[in-house]
Every structure is written in C-alpha cells, then in structure tokens.
C-alpha cells in the first residue's frame, strides 16, 4: 500500500483526491434512458433489459412464495443458525430506535404534537453480481418490519441457476413480503414508478453498483431513498500496540468487495505502517478474490503516518469513513474524538466483519464522505413524521397580532385575513 508521511495540510488534500465524489455523464445518460423506458413500457422494458444485461429470459418476475419458504430447507443448519442469530441481534438493537411521537399541552388552549407513521411500502435492492448478500437483506428488511411498514418487497438480479437459496432463505427469515428477480437501474425504475408486475414503493433502500446508485439518485423525489451509496470503505486508526497482520486482514476485508473500495490506515508509527503494507502484500497472495482486492489496494488504498494522535483523528474526520476501527490503547476514551463516521469499531476484537454480519447495528452506511451529514440505515428511515396543532379561540386571539404582523411583512395579505376572519363577527359587533 502507498505510505504517505506528509503534513496534516498536505494529507487533507491527498484524502480529498481519494474520497471526492465524481459523476460519469455517460452513465448518467444511460440510466436516464433506462428509467424513462421502464416508466413508459414497464414489464416489457424490464424483460428486454434482463435479457441484455443479465442474459436471462424472465417470464414471471415474482419468485413464488413456496420457493422462498423451501429455501429454508436448502441451506445448511449452520447457515440458518447464523442468520437467526444475526436477526436476533439486529432486532434487539433496532428496536431501541422506535419512537412514538409526542403531544405538548404545556400552554392552556394549545395542543401541539407529532405523529409518527410507518411507510406503506418499501423496496430493498439486493446486489447479485460477484457474491450473494443475505446479510444485506436482514439489515434492510428488519428495521422496516420493526418500524411497522405494511409491505417490504425485494428486488435482486436473476441468476441463470436461480436465486441463491441463501438469499431467499434470508428473505424468509427477515419477513420480506415479496421477491422479484430484476436488477440494475431497471429494478430501481420499476420500484419508483411501478410496472404491471412490480408495485411502486414509497422508499428504496440497499446498496448496488454505480448504475444502481445513479438510478436511485435520479428517481429521488418520485420516491425517497436511503442514500447514494458508493464503494465500501474502511478507515483504521492504529498505534504501535496494534497487530500488523490483523490490521492488514481488516483492510482486505473491505478491499475484496469492489475494485473501487477504499482501504485506509492512519497511524503515528512508520514502523507499523511498513509492517501493515508488507502484511497486505503477503495476505493478498492466497486471497480468493485477490484480483478485486489488489486493485482496490493499489488504486484506492493508502497509509498515512501522522505526527500525533490528535492529527490522526483530524485527518480521519476529513475522510468520514463508512467503517472506522479505533485500534489504539484504551480505544473507548477516543469515541468523543470522532465526528464523522458511519459505524465505529472499538478495539482489537471489534473487527469490521463483526458489524457486517452479527453485532446488530446496521451495515448499510454512508460512504464517500457522506458520513459528515448522513446516518446508518435504521428504523427512523421507514417512518414519516406529521406535526399537528389545535388552538382554542382564546389562544388564537392572543397570537392574532403577531401572526398578522408577520404575514403582512411578507406581503401575504390573504394569510393575515384568513386568521382575522375567525373574529370578523366580533369586530363588526364593535
């Protein structure tokens, strides 16, 4: 891995070059055409795109409910136990995010409040591509179910040998209501606008490739989305108490996701930096997804050696990584130093894959620096909030002059008159 030993100012520019968001005009245009075609021609367009992109002829997009349930018998007992264990932890964590709104009656004659309502229907995108991701199904569907969403539907690219039993089994365990075999930008368009076979949803969540991410961005406004997710990232803060082999293994755990993944280490030890770089090279040799991981390491990975721990945290907050490991002595004391990160892993035994699969906090996280303003997927993503007010006559009359003053200052006479009309008869009586 590239090792940088520069000033904090120079490293901030290096980080910017590694993490800045970019757009591809050609992909933007291709996705726009796909969305418009699906919107107009619906199922027929989907069938043509699946044949073109996934080399699969689809007659019925919906996977039969019996096939989804039968998948539970096709997976190993060990995998089912792991999925059930993950579900238990995910549910126990996300149940704590539930909120019920509030009512404020502190002022006589005035009732104010907020009503929390689950979304009616949400769509989950589950990538197909180079790997199956049953964990993503649990992470996306279970918070929606906890929130009380009426219908959770899932789309995933078709496979020539059929959708992997692990994927369908995870859908069954998570309580997904329907599964449709369609992928790519065309699947996002179907969820946004609906087709003869696939119902339109209120919100689309879940990761995907650049075409999926671009499609989610373009349909935003027609539907809500969780985020525009980019390639996976891991940032590690470590000192010389950390184990170089373990750090390298954690960096590669994210590098194997995607050639554009970002493995990053920031340390105050040049010796550790050199050992980790050597370990990465050694561990790559026998990695099954070596080609993918090596491309990510060489093109998008780096190690930064800073002068102090405070500088390490300052730089990492600039990175705002999706996953952040703090592998320093007594790591919990540094939690308050973190301002920007999707999910934080404290200490040697909180290796990042723990969060991917089993710990409970969500693994659908902001990427590409968006952790500066975004949060992990949660129950709060599957509800909407509506405010309400009720005033008595006396309470409105007490505020009348201030309301009309503000309305007329803004040049909105009808606003002022609408409130005054409630007291028109009394004013005539005078």
UniProtKB/TrEMBL annotation:
Q: Which residues hold NAD(+)?
A: 125, 186, 209
Its UniProt pathway annotation is: Amino-acid biosynthesis; L-histidine biosynthesis; L-histidine from 5-phospho-alpha-D-ribose 1-diphosphate: step 9/9
Q: Which residues are listed for Zn(2+) binding in this entry?
A: 254, 257, 356, 415
Q: Name one GO cellular component term.
A: cytosol
Top-level taxon: Bacteria
List, separated by semicolons, the cofactors it needs.
Zn(2+)
**Binding of substrate, residues:** 232, 254, 257, 323, 356, 410, 415
Q: Which note does the record give on the cofactor?
A: Binds 1 zinc ion per subunit.
Keywords attached to this Swiss-Prot or TrEMBL record, sorted alphabetically, are:
Amino-acid biosynthesis, Coiled coil, Histidine biosynthesis, Metal-binding, NAD, Oxidoreductase, Zinc
Which residues participate directly in catalysis?
Answer: 322-323
Protein EC: 1.1.1.23
Coiled-coil segments on the chain, per record: 1-52
Q: Name one GO biological process term.
A: L-histidine biosynthetic process
MF GO annotations: histidinol dehydrogenase activity; NAD binding; zinc ion binding
Q: What class of enzyme is it?
A: oxidoreductase
InterPro entries found in the cross-reference section:
Ald_DH/histidinol_DH, Histidinol_DH_CS, Histidinol_DH_monofunct, Hstdl_DH
**According to its UniProt record, which reaction does this protein catalyse?**
L-histidinol + 2 NAD(+) + H2O = L-histidine + 2 NADH + 3 H(+)
Family statement:
Belongs to the histidinol dehydrogenase family.
What NCBIfam families does the record point to? hisD
* Functional description taken from the UniProt entry: Catalyzes the sequential NAD-dependent oxidations of L-histidinol to L-histidinaldehyde and then to L-histidine.
The protein in question is named Histidinol dehydrogenase
Q: Which organism is it from?
A: Liquorilactobacillus ghanensis DSM 18630
Tell me the gene name.
Answer: hisD
């Amino acid at each position: 891995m590239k090792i940088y030993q520069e000033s904090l100012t120079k490293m901030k520019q290096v980080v910017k070059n590694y993490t800045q968001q970019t757009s591809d005009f050609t992909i933007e245009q291709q996705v726009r055409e796909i969305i418009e075609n699906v919107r107009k021609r619906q199922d027929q367009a989907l069938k043509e795109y699946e044949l073109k992109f996934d080399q699969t002829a689809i007659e019925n997009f919906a996977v039969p409910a019996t096939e989804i349930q039968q998948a539970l018998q096709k997976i190993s007992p060990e995998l089912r136990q792991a999925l059930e264990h993950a579900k238990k932890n995910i549910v126990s964590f996300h149940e704590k995010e539930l909120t019920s709104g509030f009512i404020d009656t502190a002022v006589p004659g005035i009732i104010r409040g907020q009503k929390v309502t689950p979304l009616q229907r949400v769509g989950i995108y589950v990538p197909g591509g180079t790997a199956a991701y049953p964990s993503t199904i649990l992470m996306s569907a279970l918070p929606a179910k906890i929130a009380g969403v009426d219908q959770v539907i899932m789309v995933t690219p078709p496979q020539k040998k059929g959708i992997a039993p692990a994927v369908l089994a995870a859908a069954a365990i998570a309580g997904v209501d329907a599964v449709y075999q369609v992928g790519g930008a065309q699947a996002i368009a179907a969820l946004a606008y609906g087709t003869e076979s696939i119902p339109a949803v209120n919100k689309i969540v879940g990761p995907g490739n650049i075409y999926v991410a671009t499609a989610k961005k373009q349909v935003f406004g027609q539907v809500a989305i969780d985020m525009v997710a980019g390639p996976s990232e891991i940032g590690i803060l470590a000192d010389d108490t950390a184990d170089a082999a373990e750090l390298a293994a954690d960096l590669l755990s994210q590098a194997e996701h995607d050639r554009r993944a970002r493995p990053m280490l920031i340390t105050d030890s040049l010796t550790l930096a050199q050992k980790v770089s050597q370990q990465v090279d050694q561990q790559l040799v026998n990695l099954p997804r070596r080609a993918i991981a090596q491309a990510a390491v060489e093109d998008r990975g780096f190690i930064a050696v800073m002068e102090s721990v405070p500088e390490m945290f300052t730089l990492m907050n600039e990175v705002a990584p999706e996953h952040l490991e703090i592998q320093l002595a007594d790591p919990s004391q540094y939690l308050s130093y973190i301002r920007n990160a999707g999910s934080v892993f404290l200490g040697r035994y909180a290796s990042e894959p723990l969060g991917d699969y089993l710990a409970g906090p969500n693994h659908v996280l902001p990427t590409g620096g968006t952790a500066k303003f975004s949060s992990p997927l949660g129950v709060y993503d599957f509800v909407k909030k509506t405010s309400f007010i009720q005033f008595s006559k006396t309470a409105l009359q007490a505020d009348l002059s201030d309301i009309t003053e503000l309305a007329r200052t803004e040049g909105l006479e009808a606003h002022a008159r609408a409130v005054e009309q409630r007291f028109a008869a009394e004013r005539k009586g005078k």
